[in-house]
Structures are given as structure tokens and as C-alpha cells.
Amino acid sequence: MTIQPLPVPTRIFGGEGLISYASRHAARNGTSVEEIERALSQTGAMPKTSHRHTRERLQAWRDLGALHHTAFTTPPEIAGAEVIDRPLCLRCTDGADATGRLPRIGWVCARHRRWLGAQQHDIRAAPELVAAERHYRRVLAPRGILVRSPVMQLARECAIVRTGRSILATRSRRGGISNLSLLTYPETVRTARLITNPGFNTRMLQPELRPGERHALCVRATTGFFLEAEDDESWRAAHRITAMFNAIARELEKRASTASPQSTQTSDAALATAWTIWGR
């Protein structure tokens, strides 16, 4: 049975999810999602189901909105990492409340200079955040690093303990914002880029490298990595990064000890294994 579009069209936003779009589309047509789906179910156009993302339900709402077949196709996870559903930029949506999955975008709408956390902020007074976002999209997104991945969580922890309070205070005064995730975003992205850099991974995961040597490598790599401040605690960031690589190295050694002598692994495969152990 062919499903005809609802009379009042509703524009779908990039990455917008089914629940968000269906709610907005139904409201613009003076009804509700429940009423529409009940009617479709009674006519046999859509099977009654409690699952939110069945193939039939997705296609029904594409038909109801006259949408492209690629609508609602952003995967819920990539390489085992969750692609979170989050609020879209209110400037992009002209003020409409909408949510979606944006796997190749970090926490900043570069077009409108807005922070996309739980509470959105205008960040035109903090151009370094927009610059960090461009680095995220150019470097981290192609590496499969998502905004809520363990790597980004660790990088955020390192950024918070490493960035001096004086620097945070200056940024806070400039933008009138106290959100730590926002204030340390440039350092978070910079740390994540280091952690996932193939060359750095190769050096940190050299066979038979001792923990002390691994820590020394990390200290050298992070020296001069952040803006200098009298009250920074760079050693805490280096300690966290070293601890992560120590855990990965132990697991790699354990796997190597149980592998057959004939098995070999390329450097790219070893890096992929390392990221799988820690989680992207």
C-alpha cells in the first residue's frame, strides 16, 4: 500500500533521527505520531510494533515526509563505538528542538559558532574552539574517534588537569562561560590527536618497552604541547596517557603469548588492535 505524504511538508535537518523528525512533522500537521501510526496500522500500511526503528516504520515516515531514501540511515554505532543522539544546533534548525546523530562532527557548530553540549552557547568570543573543531573533523573523525568515545573521555580528563586555572579563567571571562568541557575543548582535541597518532602509538607500544621508558616518551611528547601556565600540572596528563598505553601493552603482550608462531601482524593491524582494547 502506497503511503501519501502529509499535506504540510517538514524539512529534515542533517543527521536528524526518526523520533525527532516524526514528532515535528506530526505537530506541523496538527496531529501526533501515535495517531498517525495507529491509522497506518489499522489500514495495514505499517505493521503494529513496539520497536522504534523497524524497516517498515522508517520507510513509512520517509513516505509521510516525501524524504530521500537516505533519511534516518546514520548508524547507531561505528566500529563498535556508539554514535550518540544529541541536540542539533538551534541556529541550524531555526530554533526548532531537534536531535540527531552526527558522527563526523564534534561539540561545535563551526558555521554558527555554537557549542553543542547539553546547554548550547555562543562561542564567537572563543575562536580557538572553532579551530579545535576543524582539527576534530579533519583528523579525529577520519580516525573513527567519536565525541563520547573512551579516547575523547581520557583526552578531556587530561585537558582538565593539564590546562592551567589562569588560562581557564581568562577563557571563562572572555566568553562568560564556566563549562569545563567547553573551556578545555582545544586541549581535549589536541590530546586526542596525540593519543591516536599512528607514529606516537608505534613508539609507545614498542615490544619490551618498560613502563618507565614509556612514561619518559610520553613526557617528551607532551612537553610544550599545551599553553604554558604557572599553575599547570602537566605531569598528571602524562601519567594518565602512560597508564592507558601500559594497559594496552600488557594486553598486547598477553595476546602475543597465546598467538601461533606463524601469525604476524602489520603495524596498522596492531594499531587497530590497540584501539579495540582501549575502545574508540
In short:
This protein has 280 residues and is mainly α. It contains twelve helices and seven strands.
Provide the fold topology.
Blueprint: H1 18-28, H2 33-42, H3 55-65, E1 77-78, E2 81-82, E3 85-87, E4 99-101, E5 108-109, E6 114-115, E7 121-122, H4 127-140, H5 150-162, H6 165-175, H7 180-183, H8 185-195, H9 198-204, H10 211-222, H11 234-258, H12 267-278
Antiparallel strand pairs: 1-2, 3-4, 5-6, 6-7
Helix pairs in contact: 4-8, 5-8, 5-11, 10-11, 11-12
Structural account:
The structure is a single chain. The protein is mainly α. It folds into 2 domains: 1-73, no CATH class; 77-278, no CATH class. The chain contains 12 helices and 7 strands. The protein has helices at 18-28, 33-42, 55-65, 127-140, 150-162, 165-175, 180-183, 185-195, 198-204, 211-222, 234-258, 267-278; strands spanning 77-78, 81-82, 85-87, 99-101, 108-109, 114-115, 121-122. A 3-stranded antiparallel sheet has the order 5-6-7, with helices on one face. Strand 5 (108-109) and strand 6 (114-115) form a beta hairpin. Helix 5 (150-162) packs across helix 8 (185-195) and helix 5 (150-162) runs antiparallel to helix 11. The longest helix has 25 residues, at 234-258.
